[in-house]
Amino acid sequence: MSKDRKNVREAALELLEAVEKNESYSNLLLDRYIEKYRFHGPDRALLTEITYGTLQRKQTLDYFLAPFLRKKIENWVRILLRLSLYQMVYLDKIPDRAIIFEAVEIAKKRPPRDFRNGQRRFARHPARGAQKFKGNRRPA
């Protein structure tokens, strides 16, 4: 993978950051990111799903992340946790261990200041958080 090529989850994180920071239109940014990083087939579908799904369920995801986050965290960390929880709860074909692994790998590339405490508690107990969430969600 080339230096400027990102994986799908990194691109989704960057895209969602831009949507929140600049109040951009997600559909326009999504098209740009698909072209910029040359996503095709399953990668394109996954990027679309996790981007729109995370945006659509943002408030619900934040509600279930709140018990794990006792202090203010950087926005990118919150978005990464939303992305991860969305995948764990709503996407059946991706194993939880793969989701957590990818989230940790992405976090390693960023300043480590806020990837502590609550985020690590969530990472250590993803099944507990996701099961609690799955039990309380309403059918779509």
Q: Can you write the helix and strand succession as a string?
A: HHHHHHHH
Task: Evaluate the radius of gyration.
Answer: 14 Å
Distance between the termini: 36 Å
Could you tell me the CATH topology label: N-utilizing Substance Protein B Homolog, Chain A
Share in β-strands: under 5%
Structural description of this entry:
There is one protein chain. This protein is mainly α. The chain has a single domain (8-134), classed as NusB-like (N-utilizing Substance Protein B Homolog, Chain A, Orthogonal Bundle). Helices cover 70% and strands 0% of the residues. The protein is built from eight helices and no strands. α3 (41-56) crosses α5 and α4 (58-65) packs across α5. The model has no long low-confidence stretch (mean pLDDT 85).
Task: Give short descriptive properties of this protein.
mainly alpha; single chain; 140 residues; N-utilizing Substance Protein B Homolog, Chain A
